[in-house]
């Protein structure tokens, strides 16, 4: 199970918990619960005892987010965590950066689909994102102004800032700036990322393929 699939499962369970609190129609709840079961069983083996325990917990109307979070911990062995990169590897991803500030250790590699960290001293953000050809390093200038808007990566509304990269234009020696708004809180952005579709579009925009 990928990290973004794990996030999608979490989101489905949290929707079910919210319905338990707000919906009185058993038929509606049965549909929501069946959707969660389909997501879970589409990712994990039904015969595994940890999965069986999780399914049983989903049947309980008094299930809380706190209890669900503990249950999610039992499923992390099924998740392929985001890798830990060495300083040398990060420098290889971002070869044009002479003095690359290193990122802090990941707080939760099981809900991290892309790596991002800031160098606030020079108002720059670095990203390492997965692609079909391996991991790709990106860097861009980030406006200090924070606004409420739609993040181009997770496609959720929140506190965002403009990320701008400089890329080569069509003519030799010609450069152009490409940008979009992204979450200021990279961890929160990852925790909302249930698909890589928008991340891939963001990468294609700020680093056009020639």
**Distinct helical segment count:** 7
Number of strands: 6
The dominant shape is: elongated
Main sheet attributes: strand count, strand direction, barrel closure: 6 strands, antiparallel
Overall pLDDT, averaged?
91
How much helix is in the residues? 25-40%
Give your account of this protein's structure:
The chain has 210 residues and is an alpha+beta fold. It has 7 helices and 6 strands. Strands 1, 2, 3, 4, 5 and 6 form a 6-stranded antiparallel beta sheet that branches. It is elongated. It starts with a helix and ends with a helix.
Strand and helix map with partners:
Layout: H1 3-22, H2 26-43, H3 49-58, H4 65-73, H5 87-93, E1 115-119, E2 124-131, E3 134-142, E4 147-150, E5 157-168, E6 175-183, H6 186-190, H7 197-206
Antiparallel strand pairs: 1-2, 2-3, 3-5, 4-5, 5-6
Helix pairs in contact: 1-2
């Amino acid at each position: 199970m990928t990290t973004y699939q794990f996030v999608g499962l979490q989101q489905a369970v949290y929707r079910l918990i919210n319905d338990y609190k707000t919906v009185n129609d058993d038929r509606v709840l049965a549909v929501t619960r069946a959707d969660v079961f389909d997501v879970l069983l589409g990712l994990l083996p039904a015969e595994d005892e940890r999965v069986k325990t999780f399914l049983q917990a989903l049947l309980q109307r008094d299930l809380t987010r706190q209890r669900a979070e503990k249950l999610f911990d039992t499923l992390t062995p099924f998740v392929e965590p985001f890798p830990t990169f060495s300083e040398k590897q990060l420098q290889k991803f971002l070869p044009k950066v002479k003095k690359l500030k290193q990122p802090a250790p990941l707080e939760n590699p099981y809900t991290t689909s892309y790596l991002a960290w800031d160098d606030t001293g020079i108002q720059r953000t670095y990203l390492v994102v997965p692609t079909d050809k391996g991991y790709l390093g990106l860097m861009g200038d980030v406006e200090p102004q924070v606004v409420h808007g739609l993040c181009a990566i997770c496609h959720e509304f929140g506190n965002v800032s403009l990320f701008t990269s400089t890329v080569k234009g069509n003519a030799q020696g010609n450069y152009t700036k490409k940008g979009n708004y992204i979450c200021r809180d990279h961890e929160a952005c990852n925790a909302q990322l249930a698909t890589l579709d928008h991340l891939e579009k963001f990468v294609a925009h700020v680093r056009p393929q020639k």
